[in-house]
Amino acid sequence: MAERFNEVVLPHLGDALALARWLTGNAADAEDVVQDACIKAHTGIAGYAGGNPRAWLLTIVRNTSYTWMSRNRPRGMMAVGDLGDLDEMAAAHGTNVRDEDGPEASLIAKAETAALEKAIAGLPQPFRETLVLRDINGLSYRDISVMLSVPIGTVMSRLARARSLLASELGERHDRP
Amino acid sequence: MTAHDDGLPNDPEGIMLMIHALVDGELDAAAALAVERRIAADPKLAAEHARILALQGAVGRLPRPDVSDAFRARIAAIGTASAQAQDEAPPALPGLIAGAAQQRRATDTRPSQARPSPRARRFGSFDWRAMAASIVMTAVLASGATQWVMFNAASDSVAAEIAGDHRRSLLAASPIDIVSSDRHTVKPWLDARIGVSPPAPDLATDGFALIGGRVEVVSGRPVPALVYRHREHLITLVAEPQQGGRVTEPKDVSSGGFSMVHWSDGAFSYWAISDMERPELDDFVARFRKAAV
Predict the structure, then answer these.
(1) How many domains does chain A have?
(2) Fewer beta carbons within 10 angstroms: which end of chain A, N or C?
(3) Which ipTM did the prediction report?
(4) B13 touches chain A (CB under 8 A)
(5) Nearest to A166 by CA among A118, A132, A119
(6) Distance from CA of A166 to the nearest CA of B (A)
(7) What is the CATH number of the domain that holds B246?
(8) What are B183-230's pLDDT values in tens digits?
(9) Is the sign of the CA dihedral A21, A26, A30, A33 positive or negative?
């Protein structure tokens, strides 16, 4: 059991910390959350039926993050009722919100770390978690769809919306003197 | 833009999603080829494709949190600790004794301090010396043997048991099985041994320092206990996992010369016991409840 825990959990601690850091907003809380999540993972390791171990661990980390946040800072949580509105918004304005004037790719590529991190932190939570799961944790659309219990189409529109918001944010930063 | 017959969506949003999917490696070869053709034919789509690639690259280059060696070791310990408990606990004894032995070996090697508490002596039928020979342990005896005796002889009320455990812990070589002011050490230790750990806030800034934890046996069940220190006084906080989820306000259940307060938060039923005066213990209880929410 201990070997299985080491094989399944330990290689993905970096991903687990990264996800928890983006969901909770800071690195110190992330360690607390990941530790709690690993204890849960250890208890539940018998229920891990194979498949992507990183997605399995990250699912636990995500759930633990939200439990942790609801306990430690209830006001930071977004009400569940808001999620539907956000998806509608994403669907309505999703990707064609600006037809021509996205910032140049070269501007985005030159974005400073701090500016990019601030922009990610400023994303609404469903968009932020989808972007982090895809572009930082490297999960597939299907893994994310299963983890969030939403259709793949929703994963795709959230991801497109998140990237579009980030691109505009970074573009605007450059427009400002 | 003319209609395409390549099977891709024709609305602008649909094709955008396909470009994201292309960048994310989610398309099969045929669909990827079709999307690439659309991109090649349309500068707007090409610009969007370049933006998505640039953004993904920038996000991918963000510094990732370090997994410190200390953190990795702490997580690895979650797996190892329970393996030890499973492998080494003699089947006839509660696993907590072997677990405690592991800890004591590192922290306390003074055999002279291994003395049975008066309570253990009262149940004189248990030959703790035989146990000493069998597990070659020293300091663990004072607490371990007593717990085992009480496990078998538990007939007192829970409060009296806890009072007895607390008194015994004061007489034992060490009142704690896991010595640490770090809740990141105490919680996994308890978790690994008995599969449950209560909230363990460090209240050092409030004058109540977390100094460790131990396993108590109450009504025949192992339950986690935290130990806090307030000046020269020790506070034992026994946290029995609750099934019913009842929430009760703190109630004075002092007995046997100790101050004792009992309350429940739905997840755990708590007993705080100490030789401090009631007002001080109430202060601790209030601070703990506030921090443990």
Answers:
(1) 2
(2) C
(3) 0.85
(4) yes
(5) A119
(6) 8
(7) 3.30.200.100
(8) 777 887 777 777 778 888 888 888 888 888 887 777 767 788 888 888
(9) negative
